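Thread: "does anyone have the structure for this chain?"

Original post by V.I.:
We have the sequence but no experimental structure in hand. Need at least a predicted one for the grant figures.
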Amino acid sequence: MWGFLESVHSMKTRTPHSFSATPAKPVVEKRHKGAGEVRIIGGEWRRTKLPVALKPGLRPTPDRVRETLFNWLGQSLLGWRCVDPFAGTGALGFEAASRGAAHVQVCELDPALVAQLSTQVNRLKATNVHVLRTDGVACLKQLSAASVDLIFIDPPFDGALFEPALQAAAKAVKADGYVYLEAPAAWTDEQLEPMGLSLHRHLKAGAVHAHLLRRIA
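Reply from O.Q.:
Generated one for you, tokens below.
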């Protein structure tokens, strides 16, 4: 998932006393191995770890937020068609697939992340997950009208992708489907109504605002 991710490196050095004959020990910088891991929290692949690459702007959806989201959705997504157009780590898409979604399309533009997503698909034998290298908004615009049960909108927080992504998602989601929106600020019905969406649920967790949206009839 995409958002803000900051990694801080700290290193302590020891300077010898000006009258000491003992030379200072050389400082060895530890190699950074990445930003860590996230776990799938429910379904067939529960507790399975997914790697988080060290990429500017990459921030997986927090566990608490994902748990709340799938509580809102009712835990089982058996037979659903889902799209994760700004996949990043793939945490949301794999979570949906783990919970029984019939088809999960994950889209990502970064080639290294696409390769990582494909590796996880092969590792999990996730035949219901399909990885596509493409821009997230373009991914949404290619979808047929009213063809998807659930769409995850979690683009980079510092970009201008929210409005075009929501507009495209509103056309692609089924009348009884859902659009999940993760953003650095709360979105209101006044902002969402011109796009044909309305606010169904909202959660603030730290700097993250999680929204579950529905189509306006």
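V.I.: this helps a lot. The two ends are 29 Å apart (CA to CA).
O.Q.: and The first helix runs from residue 63 to 73.
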